[in-house]
Amino acid sequence: MALLDHLKELRNRLFKAAIAVVIGTVAGFLVYQPFLAALTKPIRDLNEQQGRQATLNFDGVASSFDLMIQVSVFLGLIIASPVWLYQLWAFIVPGLHKKERRIALSFVAAAVPLFVGGVLLAWLVLPNAVRVLTEFTPAGGSNFISAQVYLTFVLRLLLAFGIAFLLPVVLVGLNLAGIVKGQQLLKSWRITVFLVCLFAAMAAPGADATSMFYLAVPMLALFFAAIGLCMLNDRRRERRAVKRAAETEATADQATPSSELENL
């Protein structure tokens, strides 16, 4: 395709993805109230279960409207993710070989459930993180939490867990592309464990070890599973290379037919 045709194709893909996000945003607007109620439940639990004064504060006239728009767009991106991920994949696929298309499709198929699983795990960690962080409030103090600050905190938590669960998929993709070998990853398992724990300590907003534990253990399990897949793929690749070398050696002494030489 010419450059202009590629740009037209990109425009069409972006237009379809934008329509899906808009429809998803409308759906997010319809479920905004129950979603916000679930989002603010950890704050209400501080009042009901622990007797502490904590409220969500809207510090502007249009703050509640801005929050509704941001949450609806965020939900729209989540709801429409299969569509815009497919549009991205469909734009890239025509330029790939058949084997690379399978790899790209497998990457997308594995990335979506892992990202959703990370977000769901972050949702389970959220109440504990809010409880632990607000326990540092001095006696007699109250927690009047800005709605914008709270939303940023929650979205960062959800995205940190979701992106963390995607990293092993990236490792497998690099291995399939021949950039990283499984044996190299296995040799550096100590530094991998250290970096995962360091990332979990920085990404998990809880000041206690529990939220770090919730993030680090699944990440380590996924990382070592990814290393196992990389090593299996390396062995399969080595067997194919040995077989190809044996076939080449077996046919190396055979003369090339004259018909092939004439065609050449």
Automatic annotation (TrEMBL):
Keywords: Cell membrane, Membrane, Protein transport, Translocation, Transmembrane, Transmembrane helix, Transport. Residues 253-264 have a biased composition (Polar residues). It comes from the Bacteria. It is a multi-pass membrane protein. Its main location: membrane. It is found in: Cell membrane; Membrane. The chain crosses the membrane at residues 14-32, 67-91, 103-126, 153-177, 189-207, 213-232. The keyword Cell membrane applies. The keyword Glycoprotein does not apply. Residues 243-264 are annotated as: Disordered. NCBIfam families: tatC. The Tat system comprises two distinct complexes: a TatABC complex, containing multiple copies of TatA, TatB and TatC subunits, and a separate TatA complex, containing only TatA subunits. Substrates initially bind to the TatABC complex, which probably triggers association of the separate TatA complex to form the active translocon. This is Sec-independent protein translocase protein TatC.
